[in-house]
Amino acid sequence: MEGSQNYNRRKFIGDVAKATACIGLAGVPLDVLAKSNTVKVTILHTNDTHSRIDPFPINDPKFGGMGGVARRMSLINKIRGEEKNVLLLDSGDIFQGTPYFNFYGGELEMKLMTLMGYDAATMGNHDFDNGIQGFVKQLPHASFPFLCSNYDFKNTELEGRTLPHKIFIKDGVNIGVFGIGIELAGLVDEKNFGKTVYSNPIDVANKTAAYLKKEKKCDLIICLSHLGFKYENSKKNSDEMLATQTENIDLILGGHTHTFIDTPEKYHNLKNKEVLVAQTGWAGIRLGRIDFYVEKKSSLISSRGTTVKIS
Asked: What is the CATH number of the domain that holds 221?
């Protein structure tokens, strides 16, 4: 009997290792995953959808027949039916790119994201294309919060309408999520962001992540970033810089540069701990997925990530 139990335990551990193709923290034994207090958390994410509601035309030379909100919703619902603990997040640039935005000003995008059950999003530069007033006009159609920690909207119509961060609890695991935005000056017409005050994203990310980790005791910390993946100019703020020059962040979900990352890139932070950076390109043609295995009230154990083509 004991030999049979040991065999089943070894088989379970082996199956987990094969299934997850773990890219998580080095040195953590996989048999920890067999413990009953290990929780699986599934993070689904998108970025830079740019008002792409319909699939690309079949004759499109690059993305023929790909994308579409209806297909994305079907895939999300399928995953929710298979997994217990799911968060759906977006990293900005929801607006601008098709006549849907020109005619409806973002109303359709917000309503569809609500139908898909998004848990949170951050703002990209194109979400200011109709100005702050235009964005505020669409907020009643969104059932999810916008997280912006390095934009101060005091003295604008967005004051009090965004959150710097939000904590989600999944099966006893505390997940802190916060948003970081790109500098708007020089990228967005000044009249469209008004008196919005921009703060250094690296400094703010460090402070916010430390607060979520130390004060709020979060087990997993996620940054929704619209800085862009990386640049030739090494001094320009990016997700790469965010990952290597901060502490306490486990996952950065990026946007802005429309970068297709098949599996999350791995970096090491100031404490030499692993940080994952992911991005799904643009136009809603891929859905990102990252599965975390977290020991309750302890630490991140392992993870795997990929993107799924929507076609």
From this structure: 3.60.21.10
